[in-house]
């Protein structure tokens, strides 16, 4: 019973923290996509795409951390891992695909893949900047 409650609690916190992170990144992506597309994009779908991408990204990074055995601080060894760097490249490709597939413009056309790449690049730059300033 304790294992089941622990699993449910972990899943709830995973979704909660992903939602908080996705909201911040959705605001950032929405601004970048409005600028890159020169047309309004749907914010609700931007949030959904960022939420899906955040959930998948957290799973990828957690799997790498468990595989590498670096689940507790300090995370310097994990950040220097070539496997994590490869996983982050895969995560960015997943982000581009999810943003491109899920976010429409107001005129019901899909956003361009180049705009999705730009949004992912800006979000990753902000995330790396925040991660390096905290470390």
From TrEMBL:
This is Uncharacterized protein. It comes from Dyella japonica DSM 16301. The lineage of its organism: Bacteria, Pseudomonadati, Pseudomonadota, Gammaproteobacteria, Lysobacterales. The keyword Transmembrane applies. It comes from the Bacteria. Keywords: Membrane, Transmembrane, Transmembrane helix. The chain crosses the membrane at residues 12-33, 45-66, 86-103, 115-134.
């Amino acid at each position: 019973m304790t294992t089941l409650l622990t699993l449910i609690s972990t899943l709830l916190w995973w979704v909660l923290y992903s939602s908080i992170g996705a909201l911040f990144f959705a605001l950032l992506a929405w601004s970048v996509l409005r600028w890159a597309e020169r047309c309004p994009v749907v914010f609700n779908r931007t949030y959904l795409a960022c939420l899906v991408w955040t959930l998948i990204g957290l799973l990828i990074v957690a799997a790498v951390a468990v595989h590498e055995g670096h689940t507790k601080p300090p995370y310097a060894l994990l950040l220097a891992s070539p496997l994590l760097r490869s996983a982050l490249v895969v995560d960015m490709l997943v982000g581009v695909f999810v943003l491109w597939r899920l976010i429409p413009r107001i005129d019901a056309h899909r956003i361009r893949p180049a705009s999705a790449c730009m949004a992912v690049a800006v979000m990753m730059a902000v995330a790396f900047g925040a991660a390096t300033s905290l470390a």
